[in-house]
Amino acid sequence: MLNKYVVYIITNKNKTTLYIGVTNDLQKRLSQHYFDSEHAKKSFAGKYNCYYLVYYENFESVKEAIQREKELKKWRREKKENLINSFNPEWHFLNNEVF
After folding, report:
1. What are the angstrom distances between the C-alpha of 43 and each of 15, 23, 63, 75, 99?
2. pLDDT at 41
3. Cα 55 from chain centroid (whole Å)
4. Which residues form the GIY-YIG domain (predicted)?
5. What is each CA distance from 56 to 4, 20, 39, 41, 84, in whole angstroms?
6. Residues whose CB is less than 8 angstroms from the CB of residue 92 and which lie 6 or more positions away in sequence, other chains included
């Protein structure tokens, strides 16, 4: 990851639930989502087994990243799907690409 902050979208195995987040360490955050899904199930992502990365954007500043995260969270599902499709048309799980 070249930039400091990442807005990301993860999903579950069946691609039925989307979770949007922001982080400065995507690898670590994906590991946390995986752990929570497999063990604690305390977070939204954990309860719905969301830890498969399907989309991400890089940002230089945390302010820009948070602003983008808030924007995406307001979108309807269809618009989020179109964004993912433009970046990752097959909805491949990208977890291994960021490690």
Report:
1. 18, 16, 23, 21, 23
2. 87
3. 6
4. 3-82
5. 13, 9, 25, 23, 9
6. 54
Question: Token pair for residue 80?
Answer: 């989020």
pLDDT in tens, 55-99: 999 999 999 999 999 999 999 999 999 999 999 999 999 999 986
Tokens 């305390």 locate to: 42
Q: What's 5-97's CATH class?
A: alpha beta
pTM: 0.94
Tell me the sheet residues that pair with 55.
Answer: 9
Tokens matching residue 5: 């902050």
Cα dihedral 12, 26, 90, 45 in deg (nearest 10): 10
Q: What amino acid is encoded at 84 in this protein? A: I
Amino acid at position 74, single letter = K
CB atoms within 10 A of CB 95: 18
Count of Cβ atoms closer than 10 Å to residue 27 Cβ:
13
